[in-house]
Amino acid sequence: MNNYGWLDSYLLKKAGAERDYKVEWGWHRYLVRGKMFAAVCTPDPKYQPHQGREMVILKCEPLLAELLRAEYPDIVPGFYCDKANWNSVYLNGAVPDQVLKELCDRSYELVFSKLTKKVQREIKEHYGVL
What we know:
This is MmcQ/YjbR family DNA-binding protein. The protein is of the alpha+beta class.
């Protein structure tokens, strides 16, 4: 059961956000100009300790990622990603909505900030974000 029914639309409202499905991985990926800022997946039960729990994977600064994992049992190191820079949040867990929204915003901003200034400007102009 997913406790965050708003998540998909929230991620897609980000300027320039697109969703695709990576068949090989079974992941719904959220991208800005081809760069992933979030992914939703359900790891096979063989991947312990996830036990088949649906999750969203989000980029995060390493120090903050550690602090969040210490505070919330439903935030764990990123599944199949760099454990220092990505967190996974279990979608059947108890992370407050506002915390998850802030993590989504942060992940998007971290990825967006790595795009070229020209691409950032194009996206902002196209979506009326200035």
